[in-house]
Write a structure and sequence with these properties.
- The protein is an alpha/beta fold.
- Helix content is about 35%, strand content about 15%.
- Strand 3, helix 4 and strand 4 (about 105-110) form a beta-alpha-beta unit.
- Helix 2 (about 35-45) runs parallel beside helix 3 (about 65-75) and helix 9 (about 265-280) crosses helix 12.
- The longest helix is centred in the middle third of the chain and has 17 residues, at about 185-200.
- It is globular.
Length: about 350
């Protein structure tokens, strides 16, 4: 599902953040206008998408956050808010006014694992007030995260009984901390170890994009919301929407350029564009041995995060990527009514025309 970044403002500085470089070019507090947000809502409805995922920065720092939520609810779309849990009181109160089944707040749990006591207390208080509106998620950027602590938090605070697990992916520029591919199998073993404890507590583990089947020792794990054999298929352009209304494949792949929305473009059209940009690299996986893997050859596994795979080509990857992008853009101009805009990862030269 597309992610909509409504502000570049953030009150944390996570070392693994793959959005930081892309949003830096906007300044510290660039916020999506109500006019652009209305166009994004129309784009989602036109694309047949029934939910909207709000990101930032920290989305609750948007100065008109309550108004955005009102606009969402008026359309019938289901809001999912991705937050670090450090919310202004006004935003928290607006979220608490929405029925739990109508809203989901995905709270980044990294602070609960490695934060200072005062920060942990603040995030836990947010979770306590949100209750069954809140679900924990964590981006795995170390080999041995303390996931058992999160199971305790979910049970103690009576949160949504799911835990979203994501991998800390690199950007193409490689400027953020990310989980090295050589650590994937160790992380897979840690997830396998926690899976039984999660199942015993009735907690479902949800895998985000970039996971690969070879991370896990068993064909199936208790409590996973996706079969291990299918987890490798989750790496496709979303696309993500930036505060100025343009679309990128996803934040780790922001260097591939951006597409400007008009009144006819849909998510399918934009996804097709970025799939074409990535097509020359379909045979590249995160591991050298991916090329000999039966799952990879049969496209039952896409070889992990495309940004992580492309990083194997550094420093040659960026010129090749941009060359492939230019040829695809020329073909797409003749096929679909979309204005394409090239953008670098700092957004310095990527304005819509």
């Amino acid at each position: 599902m597309p992610n909509v970044s409504i502000t570049s403002a953030c009150n944390r500085a996570c070392s693994y953040c793959f959005a930081r470089d892309t949003l830096t070019g906007y300044g510290a507090d660039r916020a999506m206008t109500l006019e652009i947000f209305a166009a994004v809502l129309a784009y989602l409805q036109r694309s047949g998408i029934n939910e909207i995922r709000l990101l930032g920065g920290e989305p609750t720092l948007h100065p008109q956050f309550a108004a955005l939520m009102d606009m969402i609810l008026a359309t019938g779309l289901r809001p999912i808010v991705f937050s670090n849990g450090l919310m202004p009181p006004q935003a928290l109160n607006r979220l608490r006014a929405i029925e739990p089944g109508r809203l989901r707040v995905m709270v980044n749990a990294s602070a609960l694992i490695e934060g200072e006591p005062a920060l942990v207390d603040q995030v836990r208080q947010t979770l306590r007030l949100l209750g069954r509106r809140a679900m924990l998620g964590v981006n795995l950027h170390t080999r041995q995260p303390r996931l058992d602590r999160l199971l305790d938090t979910i049970a103690t605070l009576d949160l949504i009984p799911r835990l979203r697990l994501g991998l800390a992916h690199p950007t193409l520029a490689g400027s953020n901390l990310s989980l090295a591919a050589k650590a994937y199998r160790q992380v897979g073993r840690n997830i396998s170890a926690i899976a039984r404890a999660a199942a015993d507590r009735g907690i479902v583990l949800s895998l985000d994009c970039g996971f690969v089947p070879c991370m896990f020792a068993h064909e199936s794990l208790p409590s996973l919301d996706v079969a291990v054999s299918d987890c490798g298929r989750r790496c496709n352009p979303l696309p993500d929407i930036l505060p100025d209304g343009r679309a990128i494949a996803c934040y780790p792949l922001a260097d591939l350029g951006a597409v400007a929305l008009d009144q006819t473009v849909t998510a399918v059209t934009i996804r097709r564009h970025f799939q074409g940009v990535l097509a020359p690299y379909a045979a590249l996986g995160i591991f050298p041995e991916c090329s000999a893997c039966e799952l990879f050859r049969d496209r039952r596994c896409l070889g992990g995060c495309r940004a992580a795979a492309l990083r194997r080509l550094v420093p040659a990857s960026r010129p090749f990527v941009l060359e492939a992008q230019q040829g695809w853009r020329e073909r797409m101009r003749a096929e679909v009514p979309v204005a394409f805009a090239c953008a670098n990862h700092r957004m310095g030269a990527g304005r819509s025309r």
